[in-house]
Amino acid sequence: MRYGRYEIVKELGKGNMGVVYQAHDPNIDRMVALKVLRPDRVTDQVLVARFIKEAKAIGRLSHPGIVTVYDVGKDQDTVYIAMEYVTGSPLDEVIRSRSFTTEEAVEVVCRVAEALDYAHAKGIVHRDVKPSNIILGQDHTTKLTDFGIAHMEDPAAGTMTQAGEILGTPAYMSPEQVKGQSVDGRSDLFSLGVILYELVAGQRPFGGNNLAAIFHSIAEEDPKAPLEVDPFVSKSLSEAILKAIAKDPDRRFQTGREMAAALMKAASRPGKDAGARDGLRQQSPVKSRKGLLAAAAAGILAALVLVFFMARQPEGPEQSGANPAAATDTAGQTGPGSQQAAQKALLNVTSEPSGADIFINGTFRGKTPLELQLPLGKYNVALNLKDYYEWEAQLQFDEPGSTPLHVRLVPIQ
């Protein structure tokens, strides 16, 4: 299979707009990451323009911390972008597999801050800084990728900023994005601050059981200081992180360079117990002090329950009751399958105006208003309505429950 001169090797991932492949460029004998727009999206000229805008946005950048764009073209009734292929893992995958020491976390975030500083100086705001868009290379490099919803300070691109009222990933969005306000580079730095908080404290600063609760937390609630979550975090680093995620952009770091310098200074003055904290984290897969205490409490509780049942156990085997391993749930089913079936998120989608097509991970699911049951996980959600700009966002459902999603579509002028 080919797109242009590029020979597809394997699929690397897919999203709401397209598919990313590892491909071979025979002209210069090198591997590239080939991002291909989904064929059903090519009929939407707004999305095609946005896709090509991504290539132009990254193509204007030349920085060791940002993926390099080599080529853009059209083939097989679609368009593609050929970019640098980075051998490594997205930060979100690394976070799930291991914990980070303070020094590691600050080093990664400072590299991204410096890359953002360069992009912002070129008039480009990323608008979707999140762990999955940060690649940790096997050679210890850090690369920022996926400028798919980047905003260029270019008068010719003015209409492109109306693709949706919410662009970005909810957990890492800035208050400006949540409120549908205009954003600048400080919004990217807020998102990066959320990532650092998560790496250092072991949990995100803002949360909730549904999208509305997450947005309210980001826009209105003050997060706990990182040192309140993990007392081994130094005061200076805790204060620097809180500055990065201040509600008011004027109270945050104003540039990526300023943020990187402040973080490096704070990390060079760790608290007296920072070494002990990092040692504990390296020895345990539990990502926070809270998790460690929870695990210990669970172990104590299990021991007490065991003692209780041993004390009440009848002496004769003929008096034993039903096998506790065969306990039946409320639906009359047994085993882990019934537990998985109960782990559903309920997404209530409405729009203004109504009647918009709803796509979940690129699959048409119906028109608004609509109630959808979805297994827990991450989804790309898009709404389409003729004569209106497409709205899209990436939603993460970590817990069962109902999530209201109301979208006010923007008419095409």
Layout of secondary structure:
Blueprint: E1 2-3, E2 6-14, E3 18-25, E4 30-37, H1 45-59, E5 69-75, E6 78-84, E7 88-90, H2 91-97, H3 102-121, E8 124-125, E9 134-137, E10 142-144, E11 151-152, H4 175-178, H5 185-201, H6 211-220, H7 226-229, H8 235-244, H9 256-267, H10 274-283, H11 289-312, H12 336-342, E12 344-352, E13 357-360, E14 363-367, E15 370-375, E16 377-384, E17 391-397, E18 401-408
Helix pairs in contact: 3-5, 3-9, 5-8, 8-9
If you had to describe this structure to a student in words, what would you say it looks like?
This protein is an alpha+beta fold and 413 residues long. It has 3 domains: 2-84, 2-Layer Sandwich (Phosphorylase Kinase, domain 1); 88-283, Orthogonal Bundle (Transferase(Phosphotransferase), domain 1); 339-408, Sandwich (Immunoglobulin-like). Helices cover 34% and strands 25% of the residues. The chain contains 12 helices and 18 strands. The protein has helices at 45-59, 91-97, 102-121, 175-178, 185-201, 211-220, 226-229, 235-244, 256-267, 274-283, 289-312, 336-342, and strands spanning 2-3, 6-14, 18-25, 30-37, 69-75, 78-84, 88-90, 124-125, 134-137, 142-144, 151-152, 344-352, 357-360, 363-367, 370-375, 377-384, 391-397, 401-408. The strands form 5 sheets. It has a 6-stranded antiparallel sheet with strand order 1-2-3-4-6-5, with helices on one face. A 4-stranded antiparallel sheet has the order 14-13-16-17, with no helix packed on it. A 3-stranded antiparallel sheet has the order 7-9-10. A hairpin with a 4-residue loop joins strand 9 and strand 10 (142-144). Helix 3 runs antiparallel to helix 9. The longest helix has 24 residues, at 289-312. It is globular, with a radius of gyration of 24 Å. The model is unreliable at 154-167 and 271-341 (pLDDT under 50).
